[in-house]
Automatic annotation (TrEMBL):
It comes from Alteromonas naphthalenivorans. InterPro entries: AB_hydrolase_fold (IPR029058), UPF0227/Esterase_YqiA (IPR008886). Signal peptide: none annotated. It comes from the Bacteria. This is Esterase. Gene3D superfamilies: alpha/beta hydrolase. Transmembrane segments: none annotated.
Length: 194
């Protein structure tokens, strides 16, 4: 039994369109794979301990090498996990320096999926910055899907950081990654075939 971890982005949830499309695809085409879609904390300072606790309580996740799909901030967190535990990851419009972006998010927010109201404070940003894998020791372990019209992140940052990884750069699109479901066969091939 293989296990795959899906990490959603900031201000998102397991109910997001991509998470649900991934879940439906695995149920239909890979019923033998267990897909884990944790609801990541809205508080960036809590996410590292949450992920490490999940891996500790579910050793099957890393037994044969971690396999992760990460979107936006989830892509940043996936990179942290792969550099720590090794494995493979597919990143969708990943955040490269979310701690710089979060400077503009200090204050109160409401998660549009859960309705939870929360505050981003300066210390959250410091915690997220500590997770930055400045150098990729496992560059071939990543497949990175980027769209050039991402309105939230500059795709060129990821294109540069993951230059030695498998890159798929599509003209147009947006931060949600239009047509994501069309890539699910290639995503699962990359993750599940050793």
């Amino acid at each position: 039994m293989k296990h795959v971890l899906y990490l959603h982005g900031f201000l998102s949830s397991p109910k997001s369109v991509k998470a649900q499309a991934t879940k439906a695809y695995f149920e239909q085409h890979h019923p033998d794979v267990t897909l884990h879609i944790p609801a990541l904390s809205n508080y960036p300072s809590q996410v590292e301990s949450q992920l490490l606790a999940l891996i500790e309580s579910t050793p099957a996740l890393i037994k044969d090498g971690l396999r992760v799909i990460g979107s936006s901030m989830g892509g940043y967190l996936s990179t942290f996990l792969i550099e720590k535990f090794s494995g493979k990851a597919v990143l969708i419009n990943p955040a490269v320096k979310p701690y710089e972006l979060l400077q503009g998010f200090i204050g109160e927010h409401t998660n549009p999926y859960t309705g939870e109201v929360f505050h981003i404070v300066e210390s959250d940003i410091n915690v997220i910055e500590k997770l930055d894998a400045k150098e990729l020791r496992h560059a071939p372990a990543y497949k990175v899907l980027l769209q050039t019209e991402d309105e939230t992140l500059d795709y060129r940052l990821a294109e540069t950081k993951y230059a030695s990884s498998t890159l798929v750069v599509e003209e147009g699109g947006d931060h949600s990654f239009i047509g994501f479901e069309n890539h699910l066969p290639a995503i699962t091939d990359f993750l599940l075939n050793d």
